[in-house]
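User: I'm putting together a teaching handout on how multi-component assemblies are represented. Below are the sequence lines for each component of a complex, exactly as they appear in our records. Could you produce the 3D structure of the whole assembly as structure tokens, so the students can see both representations side by side? Please keep the chain order the same as the input.
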Amino acid sequence: MMLSKRIVKETQRLMSEPVPGISASPLNDNLRYFNVAISGPVESPFEGGVFHLELFLTDDYPMAAPKVRFLTKIYHPNIDKLGRICLDILKDKWSPALQIRTVLLSIQALLSAPNPDDPLANDVAEHWKSNEKDAIATARDWTKRYANTQ
Amino acid sequence: MSQVPRNFRLLEELEKGEKGLNGDGNVSYGLESPDDTYLSSWIGTIIGPGNDYPSKPPAVKFTSKINMGCVSGTGAIETKSFPLLKDWNPKTTIETILIELRREMGSSANKKLVQPPEGSNY
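Assistant: Of course. Below is the structure of the complete assembly, with chains in the same order as your input.
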């Protein structure tokens, strides 16, 4: 299937003007399928880690949101054990005016601002609500263990 | 149609399995381990009617570890302590059994019990 002009444009811009802390590049054999890496935001428990994700633009894109999930394990109340992300713009708040770039920025922002009141990983959210300090320590530990590039 | 990458295709199948949307209530499937990021190991279950069923009750067993009154140390439901199986009526269905078990899990006596860690199996 032909890539839409829009996807081609978005891809070119992602490569030529990358968002700080985010890289996204399509696979050679499927230009709708992207390898993504997001650096853990400064002053978040994910600082110092690099998190890998996969992103796929379905045939319905941009009428439907991209599919995206974490491949690197992460301790976060809105991300489940399989890396699936609970984020409104990926579900009912999607708008065709949004782009791959804005989606990735929102995911980066979600790392800075975990929202345990709208959880996907219930045990993590409970931990976050009952003892935030301890939950953040676990998140730091997981970042070191699974997202450390060294 | 563009080709859906393996992982996203499997995630779709998993979601269908998790929601029980597979149309045929006699099979179910899911990941062997809930944190299998690469979705490699799956378990499928076929509900095969036993020879005596429905004139005799089926054997029911938890595979996930659970701490609950009518469940033995191996995960099996003890027929004598679960009235639906003890006073078996051939009209009772697997669905009824599962619904009743779920209700039992939420009973005041069972709700208080400490549960084994999520993901542990017999």
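A couple of points students might notice: Chain A has four helices and four strands. Residues 5-146 of chain A form a domain with the Ubiquitin Conjugating Enzyme fold (CATH 3.10.110.10).
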